[in-house]
Amino acid sequence: MPKKKWSQDVTEHSDALDLQQDVFTLKDPKKIAESLKHSAEKSHRKKARTPFQSAMSMLTFYLNRAGKNLPEGQRAILEDAKQELRKQFGRPLAS
Fold it and tell me: Which helix (H) or strand (E) element contains residue 62?
């Protein structure tokens, strides 16, 4: 049996959010942000953070772990999802 990557283990067994399956492969930044927001507000598997921090942390974690293996188009969608997440939580947009 092949050994799992540590990042997969973290996502599945830590206090990471309960995420919609394949959320990071969606093509609409708004849908990604909506899903992350919903997960952060409803999940019982999260650290003692605000829902915004939990959602943004999971998105950033995925972007960092995917690294150079993430196609440029999907990386751009996920970066746009960060801005959309800020909007949905009423946070200032990053420049």
Answer: helix 51-66
Pick 44 or 12 by higher pLDDT: 44
Mean of per-residue pLDDT scores for the chain: 83
In angstroms, the CA 85 to CA 34 distance is: 7
State whether the Cα torsion 53-54-57-62 is positive or negative. negative
Distance of CA 90 to the CA centre of its chain: 17
Reported in sequence order, the residue ranges of the chain that DSSP labels E, i.e. its strands, are: none
3-class state of residue 5 by DSSP = coil
CA distance 45 to 29: 23
